[in-house]
Amino acid sequence: MNIVTTLSVNEKKQNDLMSLFKNEAFHFFSNAVEPTGELKEADVVVTYGDDITPEMIKIAEKLKWIMVMSAGVDKLPFQEIKKRNILVTNVRGIHKIPMAEYTMGMMLQVSKHLQQVTEQEKSHEWKRLSMNELYQKNVCIIGVGAIGGQIAKLCKAFGMNTYGINTSGKEVEFVDEVGTMDRLEEFLAHADFVVSILPSTQDTKYLLTKRHFQLMQETSIFINIGRGDVIQESVLLEVLNEKLIGHAILDVFENEPLAKDHPFWGMDNVTVTPHISSITSRYLPRAFAIFEENLRTFKSGGKTLINQVNVDRGY
Amino acid sequence: MNIVTTLSVNEKKQNDLMSLFKNEAFHFFSNAVEPTGELKEADVVVTYGDDITPEMIKIAEKLKWIMVMSAGVDKLPFQEIKKRNILVTNVRGIHKIPMAEYTMGMMLQVSKHLQQVTEQEKSHEWKRLSMNELYQKNVCIIGVGAIGGQIAKLCKAFGMNTYGINTSGKEVEFVDEVGTMDRLEEFLAHADFVVSILPSTQDTKYLLTKRHFQLMQETSIFINIGRGDVIQESVLLEVLNEKLIGHAILDVFENEPLAKDHPFWGMDNVTVTPHISSITSRYLPRAFAIFEENLRTFKSGGKTLINQVNVDRGY
């Protein structure tokens, strides 16, 4: 079996994989452009999911399985994939710990004015500013699944009140109140923190509008760790220029990487991070653990791989 | 009854107090130097506890109760207080929420390289660095009481392993393993985070030595939110210059404010904060709630005030 990777895998891990799966031929690349010849023979492609074009699917005429080492699969050419009946799996589930830690880190950074504390430190200034607390604050989590549930768990430990939106409105552990989209406005109106973890789908694109931010408090903090297109960037810019809310922490954008001259970079009420909320030193080990288990199943002709993506639904 | 405050109380709160306790005479000052005349007549002094001198106790010949709006009472002139049998109460217990939040904020700031993320943001640099996780890391809490217990609670929610030192060795909720001082070295050897919350007493002064830091890992992070004199500052400086550990987060110092030319300010492996771990917008409201309840008891001749300090023990 020919396995092509389009993400960089360090030498140690390459050797691990080759010794774990002695009968398979691994072709390690660090991007999807180089391996044209190898793609033609590939049975499996391992990718972050943002580099696969419709043309590549055509070239990879033997391709049966795409292992996406990410949760977002919105960049995949689903039409071609569906036509060919190619299996798609992702690594959803491994994001919840790092992304929840990132979220709490950012909530605390803003609430505790830690950037200001750092500035004072740089000028050797001993000035006792007063911080805010997370305790008893309200958080509204839009898209409360595995990741949102982990955020809710941490928020509850901090004594926060948790509200969540999902498609079913069904109860979620650690979320005080769960509703479907029709309760979003109600939840937003009293939220101190609003966290969007929505993937990019037809239903979620531009789902948030200016009106939603008008409903929030002047001090509310918006955190986007889902996908950038949950709100039109020009609208979010308006919201922030008009200071409808207190602060936005943006890890995802409509166009990534964020252009060097984008106004978000320089705004006092915006924190920009380069789509890193899930990236920790433990990300790839966890992702490869899923890949390896799936590869064993796939080799033995097993039908149910971990985290199979519904190709019709797109997630 | 004459009540003298030596900390600034805003006008709204002054009016609240005067209307709550109509029969008492309040004398509001923002320091302990001004109210010489008033001190002579004072029955009660409300203070942060770091401004009361032996001379002031002598002047305040009617003084019966010192309400310390802080947890640390180590700066009080206990000899004079004991001689006169003056009651001392503090506000221990109200620190646990802000101090635990500060601690998690700092653990996340260092683990997630958030200062570096901010630097990149300033130069509009989209560079995806890899962060670390708190998940499954070990924390050793030296002095695990109310505050340490709250830190342990949060650490457990993050999936960390918690170890704690206290004087009894008795179990504490959310602490996986509790020991007395004789287990400190064992706990330190595998701790990723070491948090000292020790007060300053005869037993804790210079309790930590270079040897303790030699036992820690090169990557360990030391967080001091207790009192600065738990380690001699010159020794800590040596430890950090020799990079025996990864990072120190220092909120307390042997001499505060930290001198403008102190080397700690400029060190890459040190984060200095100006003794703010407990200061949030909710600090004074909580502290006054305790004072008000105690004042009611005190007025009615009640004997047991909240948080009475053992004058012999000094805490």
Which of globular, elongated, flat, extended, rod-shaped describes the shape of chain A?
Answer: globular
The biggest beta sheet of chain A reads:
7 strands, parallel
Helix fraction bin of chain A: 25-40%
The greatest interface between two protein chains, and residues involved on each side, is: A-B, 53 and 53 residues
Radius of gyration of chain A from CA coordinates: 21 Å
Measured distance between first and last alpha carbons of chain A: 27 Å
Q: How many helix segments of chain A? A: 11
Strand order of the largest sheet of chain A: 8-7-6-9-10-11-12
Q: Report the order of strands and helices of chain A.
A: EHEHEHEHEHHEHEEHEHEHEEH
What does this structure look like?
2 copies of one chain form a homodimer. Chain A is an alpha/beta fold. The first copy, chain A, contains 11 helices and 12 strands. In chain A, helix 5 (96-111) crosses helix 7 (146-157). The first copy, chain A, starts with a strand and ends in a 16-residue tail after the last helix. The model of chain A has no long low-confidence stretch (mean pLDDT 96). Chains A and B meet through helix 5, helix 6 and helix 7 of A and helix 5, helix 6 and helix 7 of B.
